[in-house]
Amino acid sequence: MRKITDISENWTYTTDTVTFFEASLPFRFNEKQLGKEIIFSKNINIEDTFLQSEIWLEIARLTGKCRIFADGDEVFSHPATIDVFRCNLGMYFNTAGEHTIEIKIEPVCENGEFFMGKAALISVDKSHFSLDNSLGDG
Questions:
Q1: Are 78 and 65 in contact, with CB atoms under 8 Å apart?
Q2: 50: helix, coil or strand?
Q3: 29-59 pLDDT, tens per residue?
């Protein structure tokens, strides 16, 4: 069985000049940030029921270079704009309790604008159909 949990609310958003609390996705930013890293972070409570499943992060759209971190470990990176991507967090979120997701973005548009769409955690039974990391071969 598949379960989708929307995690688009209450992200902390940080640039080199400002920190916003409770930022919500989708999020568009128009300030000159070209070449500067922007960080979205969120604490996620993983319940015991999630542990019997594979756990995937899915983001609807992202414009910019991005790196995804789970509890401080880099789990995914992409060099440019991507429409929908997902990455497997199961091996990193393998205990119940609070975990942290960080999304580090470097805008690539000349005007420094970037956009990040809604985010969700997807849990699927390990015997369910196979998901794959974005740009994977399956």
A1: yes
A2: helix
A3: 765 555 577 888 999 988 876 666 788 899 8
